[in-house]
């Protein structure tokens, strides 16, 4: 007869161990995603445990903790990549919009390197200085990456109207007084 303890018994005895590791690492887990991760780690530890290698409790703690750390690292990499992608997209969108002077040289409207795009206060300040339609254009076209046509359909207007909202925003962003209103510091180029 096999005297092996079932996983259900192991789970009942060690469920608090998972919660302990989550709390110890200060992880917010409103949807129990980390608990599920810890549960999978507990299962893996149960399946691979070798009694001659050390105490079961130590092995469970080690396996659960490392699995949670791996999950945290993965989510942090995802968030960093997401921020980089947003920054690159905004850089492309704004640096691609130029106006030309009489000598046919193009001058960028705004250098995106100076925009604090990952600062929520910046977006709130910008929103407070735009009309509702101008903010819709910024939000949907720049942040949500929606084409003008989709925005026009959603807002029950024309594509030209949506483009006009965007043009108004670009004109505001060219104005140094507007930069002061939104607390945006654009360093001047030394000549």
What does this protein look like?
This protein is mainly alpha-helical and 191 residues long. The chain has 8 helices and 2 strands. It has helices at residues 7-24, 33-48, 56-95, 120-128, 132-143, 148-154, 159-174, 176-181; strands at 98-100, 106-108. It has a two-stranded antiparallel sheet.
Please tell me how large the radius of gyration is: 27 Å
* CATH class categorisation of the largest domain: Mainly Alpha
Beta content: under 5%
Q: Based on the structure given, which CATH architecture of the largest domain is correct?
A: Orthogonal Bundle
Q: What's the number of domains?
A: 2
What's the order of the H and E elements?
A: HHHEEHHHHH
Helicity, as a percent range: 55-70%
Q: Which fold name corresponds to the CATH topology of the largest domain?
A: Arc Repressor Mutant, subunit A
Assembly state: single chain
Domain RNA polymerase sigma-70 region: 11-77
Protein name: RNA polymerase sigma factor (Sigma-70 family)
InterPro entries: RNA_pol_sigma-70_dom, RNA_pol_sigma70_r2, RNA_pol_sigma70_r4_t2, RNA_pol_sigma_r2, RNA_pol_sigma_r3/r4-like, WH-like_DNA-bd_sf
Domain RNA polymerase sigma factor 70 region 4 type: 127-173
């Amino acid at each position: 007869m096999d005297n092996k303890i079932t996983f259900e018994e192991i789970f009942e005895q060690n469920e608090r161990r998972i919660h302990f590791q989550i709390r110890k690492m200060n992880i917010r887990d409103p949807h129990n995603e980390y608990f599920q991760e810890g549960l999978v780690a507990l299962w893996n530890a149960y399946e691979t445990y070798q009694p001659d290698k050390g105490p079961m409790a130590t092995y469970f703690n080690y396996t659960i903790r490392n699995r949670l750390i791996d999950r945290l690292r993965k989510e942090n990499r995802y968030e960093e990549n997401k921020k980089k992608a947003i920054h690159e997209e905004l850089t492309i969108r704004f640096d691609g919009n130029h106006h030309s002077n009489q000598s046919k040289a193009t001058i960028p409207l705004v250098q995106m390197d100076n925009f604090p795009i990952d600062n929520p206060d910046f977006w709130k300040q910008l929103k407070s200085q735009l009309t509702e339609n101008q903010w819709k254009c910024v939000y949907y076209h720049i942040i949500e990456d929606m084409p003008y046509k989709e925005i026009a359909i959603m807002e029950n207007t024309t594509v030209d109207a949506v483009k006009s909202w965007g043009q108004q925003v670009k004109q505001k962003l060219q104005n140094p007084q507007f930069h002061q209103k939104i607390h945006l510091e654009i360093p001047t180029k030394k000549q």
